[in-house]
Each structure stands twice: as structure tokens, then as C-alpha cells.
Design a protein that fits this description.
300 residues, alpha+beta, five-stranded mixed β-sheet, 10 helices
Length: 300
């Protein structure tokens, strides 16, 4: 009972108000002062009942916390499974009236090779209306750099790796940006190429302004205006692609290892018919939204 009293917020605040010393870690509670403080003392049997009741509720709270952690793990695993089903054509039904992806690919890149089997996906199967092709076959991005310092007062939307968790680009003037950047546009997909952030995939959003959009050199830019950008983003977020990307980094180790753009672009992407790409992206967003609502309820 005494331990629980001394752990109570009211006693902790009282104790903190009575410390003395030169400040910081050198301040101390003085035993002579502490011993003058008051303690509410119930009858002895009630002290035992109080301690037992606190322990019961604390045990229940611990179980809830463990359950929350378990549920959070389940949500993460469920999202991974949803992505896995999506990129193998098992999340939404195929529509026979959809134009086959092979025809779409011919328009995107008439020289693109359509692959049926490859080193990384030999055991995988896809619907007949899908094709397997390399990332570079559908990527029309041509590197174009800009030096913001040349126009110091011009404003830019900067997509940097550190700001990624906010899902909002930084809005800076050219004079505030210290180096040359890549010029990007709405719908581009950014793949982080540096450890330990290889799992960061950013879909460049539409902004309500004409502010130029730029990205740091730590992003690999994928641009495919004839492919659903959200579908591509979800493919790049899938566990199978993440594992593949992690297996291909090079460098001296640790945070200095990087994925090489020339290698990454040789990897394969399963391509459904365009209408199915949109259906897949919409279904993923619907399911992820439901899971995110559960997550928010856990954190409330």
C-alpha cells in the first residue's frame, strides 16, 4: 500500500516541489523534509484490500496493452497480406472486358519486353490479362536537375527523405535549399535508395498551386503517366519488393549502403489492365482506411 501511495501522482508532484540544490540532475529531495510529509493511512485490512485491487487493475491494464500490441502487429501483417494479394491479382476480380495489359504496355513502350518467367518470380502466377515487365520499360522519367539557389526568392515544394513521415513536402524558398535537386511532377513515384529508409515510397501529390516540385538525389524517380501511380506505389510498398530491394543494396555497410538506380530499374513489376489497376488501388485504400480506423481507436 505504501509503495502505491509513493507512486501516486499527487505524492510525486509534492516531492518534486521540495527538491533543493544547484539545479538539473544535482537537485535532491532531502530525507528530513520528505519524512515530514503526510500519508493517508487506512486500517490495515483495508490497506491489503487496496493493494490487491490496484494489482488486479494493473494486471488487466497490462493485458490490454499486450492485446493492443498484438492487434497492432496483426494490422501490420494484414496490410502486408492485402498488398501481396493485390500484386498477384487476387484482391479484386478480373473483368474480361478490360483491355489486356499487353496492349497497354505496347502503347507505353512498343519495345518493352513482355516476360512470363524470371529469376525472382519463377514460382509466381498471375492472371492471363496481366504482364510482367521491367520497371524501366514503363518509366519515362528523364533526369532533370534544378539549382534553387539560382532563383533565391522562388518557392519550391521539396520532397526530402527526412520529411517523408509527415507525407507533406517542405515549402521553401530557393535560398533555403542548399543543393541541386531533381525536378518532379504530380504522379511520380519516389523510391528511397538509402539505408535505413528503403521502405519509404512517396507518391507525389497534386498541390493546389503551380509551385515547382523538387526531390533530393536520395530518391529514385519512377514516372509512368499511362499507369495508375497508386497501384505502382502499393507494389513498391509490398513485402516481396522490399525484400528484393534490400538484397540489392551496395556500399561499405550500414547507413552508407544504397540501392543503385540502374539495378532497381531492371527489376520486374506485374502489370494488370489499367481499369484493374484502379480497382486494386481503390480496394487497398478502402481496406487500409478501415484498418487505420482500428489503429486510431487503439491509440485514443
Amino acid at each position: 500500500y505504501l509503495r502505491y501511495f509513493f507512486e501516486s501522482e499527487s505524492f510525486r508532484q509534492l516531492l518534486c516541489s521540495q527538491v533543493s540544490g544547484v539545479g538539473g540532475s544535482l537537485t535532491r529531495a532531502q530525507p528530513a523534509v520528505v519524512k515530514k510529509n503526510y500519508v493517508p493511512l487506512p486500517p490495515l485490512p483495508e490497506q491489503h484490500r487496496i493493494a490487491a485491487e490496484i494489482e488486479k487493475w494493473f494486471a488487466l491494464i497490462d493485458q490490454i496493452e499486450q492485446g493492443k500490441a498484438s492487434l497492432q502487429t496483426t494490422i501490420k501483417q494484414t496490410k502486408s497480406k492485402i498488398l501481396d494479394l493485390a500484386i498477384h491479382g487476387r484482391l479484386v476480380p478480373q473483368d474480361p472486358s478490360d483491355e489486356p495489359a499487353a496492349e497497354l504496355l505496347k502503347r507505353i513502350n512498343p519495345k518493352a519486353e513482355i516476360i512470363s518467367q524470371n529469376t525472382y518470380f519463377q514460382s509466381e502466377t498471375y492472371p492471363d490479362s496481366w504482364v510482367l515487365t521491367t520497371i524501366e520499360s514503363i518509366n519515362s522519367y528523364k533526369s532533370h536537375s534544378v539549382n534553387p539557389m539560382i532563383t533565391p526568392e522562388e518557392e519550391f515544394d521539396l520532397y526530402s527523405v527526412p520529411i517523408f513521415p509527415t507525407q507533406m513536402p517542405e515549402h521553401n524558398k530557393g535560398k533555403e535549399i542548399g543543393s541541386t535537386k531533381q525536378l518532379i511532377q504530380h504522379g511520380d513515384i519516389l523510391l528511397c535508395k538509402i539505408n535505413p529508409h528503403l521502405n519509404r515510397v512517396w507518391e507525389v501529390s497534386q498541390q493546389d498551386n503551380d509551385t515547382p516540385k523538387i526531390a533530393s538525389s536520395e530518391w529514385i524517380v519512377i514516372r509512368s503517366p499511362h499507369v495508375c501511380s497508386s497501384y505502382l506505389r502499393y507494389f513498391f510498398e509490398s513485402e516481396s519488393f522490399r525484400q528484393l530491394l534490400c538484397s540489392q543494396v551496395s556500399g561499405v555497410g550500414g547507413s552508407l549502403t544504397r540501392a543503385q538506380p540502374a539495378v532497381v530499374k531492371k527489376n520486374y513489376v506485374p502489370l494488370p489492365p489499367l481499369p484493374e489497376q484502379h480497382r486494386i488501388a481503390a480496394k487497398i485504400e478502402e481496406l487500409f482506411s478501415a484498418l487505420d480506423n482500428i489503429q486510431k481507436a487503439l491509440e485514443a
